[in-house]
Specification:
This protein is an alpha/beta fold. The chain has a single domain (38-351), classed as Aldolase class I (TIM Barrel, Alpha-Beta Barrel), CATH 3.20.20. It has helices spanning 2-7, 28-34, 70-82, 110-121, 166-182, 197-207, 228-234, 254-266, 280-289, 301-312, 318-332, 342-351; strands at residues 44-51, 56-59, 62-68, 87-93, 126-131, 144-145, 164-165, 187-190, 216-221, 270-274, 295-299, 336-339. Helix 3 crosses helix 4 (110-121). Bound molecules: ligand PBG. Ligand PBG binds next to helix 7.
Length: 352
């Protein structure tokens, strides 16, 4: 822009003193009038961890985040609602883990209980559920594993032992989504990065009469080291290996657009990029490619933990750094942000 104007003989730039961007920064009111990005409490989706327990237990690497009983989850959702937060996303820690993750779609599963309790007490709260296997399986992987010991499911050919089987996992994801919808979940959010997961869940929901339940797809999810604290919170770390055979390589952005396009084709109603902070360019690219779909960014556990740790040392101003970070995600193109800072950020926004 500036260069074009320089070539224009009528341009005010011929008198450099006449162009002063600082004019629009003189007072707080003018700055507010020209602000391009506005952060609001209703941009936030607040993650809650529920488990079969009494009370609440703080997560060591995530100060201010707790594993909650169902009652405590309702209380936490109520306090979020009082701050103007419209939505929570639920993660469950089951009583028992097994190779298939059976509690994931059990009628009395922990997430199922929490959905019912929150919807009963705060009907207007938009309850999103994470749909994945990793918190429920004894091996901690996001799907059914390729096992060569003759056990079910039948081994796939030419795949390594321990590989997460795609299509066998899709059947379970469909069951989990339907089970959540039956309890009143407003939105289901598959996070396992299985090929075809959106189509499979859409078909399962539609077959059960939930054609109006939206899917928020974790369409672009990287194999990131920023998930460390979450895996402590959700007790869902893989017992061996990693998630690189399904989550994306942090080096790739064109592939992100391919993943997003597939999920849009399969019927995703909303997309997500995860993590957020090291992937702002990906958020921007996905928003520009699919401006018509609401886009969420997941401000993940490691991003939260870094700010908390620096703030605890007195090295940064937590409120200011958090709001600046969240604003950056929105400016990059995110319409919604999943953040553990949701309640605090909503409070800080009320003070500014
Ligand atoms: C999978 C899931 C994970 C996160 C959200 N959903 C963990 C993983 O993929 O290993 C991470 C979120 C965070 O780090 O805050 N159910």
């Amino acid at each position: 822009m500036a260069l074009l104007k320089l070539n224009n003989p009528q341009s005010a730039i011929r008198n450099p003193q006449s162009i002063r961007p600082r004019r629009l920064r003189v007072t707080p009111a003018i700055r507010a009038m020209v602000r391009e990005t506005e952060l609001n409490a209703h941009d936030f989706i607040y993650p809650l961890f529920v488990r079969h327990c009494e009370g609440r237990t703080e997560i060591r690497s995530m100060p201010g985040v707790f594993q909650l009983s169902v009652d405590e989850a309702v209380r936490e959702a109520e306090s979020a609602a009082a701050l103007g937060i419209l939505s929570v996303i639920l993660f469950g820690i089951p009583a028992e883990k097994d190779p298939l993750g059976l509690e994931n779609f059990a009628d009395d599963g922990i997430v199922q209980q929490a959905i019912r309790a929150i919807k009963q007490n705060i009907p207007e709260m938009v309850v999103v559920t994470d749909v994945c296997l990793c918190e429920y399986t004894d091996h901690g992987h996001c799907g059914i594993l390729n096992v060569q010991d003759g056990a079910k499911p039948r081994p796939s050919k030419n795949l390594p032992e321990g590989y997460v089987l795609n299509d066998q996992t899709l059947d379970i994801l469909g069951k989990v989504a339907v089970s959540h919808a039956e309890c009143g979940a407003d939105i289901v959010a598959p996070s396992g990065m299985m090929d075809g997961m959106v189509a499979a869940i859409r078909a399962a929901l539609d077959e059960s009469g939930f054609e109006n339940t939206p899917i928020l797809s974790y369409a672009v999810k990287y194999a990131s080291s920023f998930y460390g604290p979450f895996r402590e919170a959700a007790e869902g770390a893989p017992k061996f290996g990693d998630r690189k055979s399904h989550q994306m390589d942090p080096a790739n952005v064109h592939e992100a657009l391919r993943e997003a396009a597939l999920d849009v084709d399969e019927g995703a109603d909303m997309l997500m990029v995860k993590p957020a902070l090291a992937y702002l360019d990906v958020i921007r690219a996905v928003k520009e490619a699919f401006p018509e779909l609401p886009l969420a960014a997941y401000n993940v556990s490691g991003e939260y933990a870094m700010i908390k740790a620096a703030a605890a040392n007195g090295w940064i101003d937590e409120a200011k750094v958090t709001l600046e970070t969240l604003t950056g995600m929105k400016r990059a193109g995110a319409d919604l942000i999943l953040t553990y800072h949701a309640k605090e950020a909503a409070k800080w926004l009320q003070q500014t």
